[in-house]
Amino acid sequence: MKSEGVGFNAEGDAEGDRVADFLHRLRSEAAEGARYVSHYSAAQDTPPGVRATLRLEDEYLSETAKLTLEALESNPESGGDNSTWIDFKWKLAAFHNIQDAFAPFVYGGGSHLNMFHLWYFYYESKYILAELVLCGLNGYSSASNALSRLFLEFNAMQNYYYRRVNAESSFRAVAEYLKTGRHPSWGKLVKGAIPADAFCRPIRHRIDSNLQGLSAASSHPYHPRESHKRRVGTHPRQSMEGMFFWNTISFVLSPVLWMYSVNFPMLYFPRDTFKKCGFNPPMGLVVGQATAASLQHSMPPNDYEEFKEYASTNPDVSGVLAWLEGRPDLGASEIRATWNEEEDGPQSDSIELDQITKITKVRALREMMALASVPEHDQDVNAGTIEQLTTFVGWREIHRRAKERRKGRKKS
Fold this sequence. Notes:
Layout: H1 10-32, H2 50-54, H3 63-74, H4 83-97, H5 114-117, H6 120-137, H7 141-168, H8 172-180, H9 186-192, H10 201-219, H11 229-232, H12 245-263, H13 273-277, H14 289-297, H15 301-312, H16 315-325, H17 332-337, H18 341-344, H19 351-369, H20 386-390, H21 392-411
């Protein structure tokens, strides 16, 4: 007697379940919308880890990425546990913390949301920074280098539009960019991203040099000497040379932090705003000691003193400090009395913990609002169906219609 039935493949069914669970999670996340989280580190002596600063959870890390990071953190032979690796982590922390200096402005020239849209460039670059580190951890060197240039460009744009908005007392320039996607030439943009004085000229030179170097090595077809295939062969993968990807990122982070240093002088004059204002401190403008410490650790002492001296010449610094120091110090009970449970939830037993809660909430809110209700670009009149866009015959039809429209515009 022979019994026949449906075969059972435990391994195949398990794999199918994993894929189904994965797709279900993606659909659920798409339905819920984007999720914004932030964190705050009070570290002043030891830099927070790369994973903590960039919020790289286990689910985002491949086995290769985990091993690379573990080697960098623990093996001096691979570049970890030394002064340059520690400097890199401080630079990451400083870049993450400078957002606390972003003050809101109430200008005309568009929607009231533009006071948040102004900071879009920084928050997008923060996302790109996480992506390029992930590429480096996996050995995807070409992608990492290409993203390094994009990271630098976004931060040059951030400083340019920040300065332009303040100079014009209007958000018109930001609103126009968000509507059209068009910005000034890179020469004009880099020139306008920092003050036009002798102190800042070397910074402009460094930005230009980095943009040119990254362009030659990754953003355009590059010379064979730049090819990563020479060390890994056919398949993209991690290599001993690729383990040092973070050196390029560190080299790019330096001029980025210099730009923010000359445009946000209060980064060099930290104050305890909670002691003066309770849980209703001025949003942005004045930073805490941990933010200033991360910036100080991110550069050599001589550099830090140079930038601090330059910052002290800004007339806004003395005015802000005088206003803040003119306020009386609050006692613990007075600080606690300023907590708003309706907005911030139940109060903890620790003022320090509540301060961290407040700072992280403001950071996450700003990041979310930077993309809130951003206008869509003008629709491309050449747009077609997927089939038209991916076939020669379809694209020829799009080309024909575009040609007819151009003729029509000329006649009119």
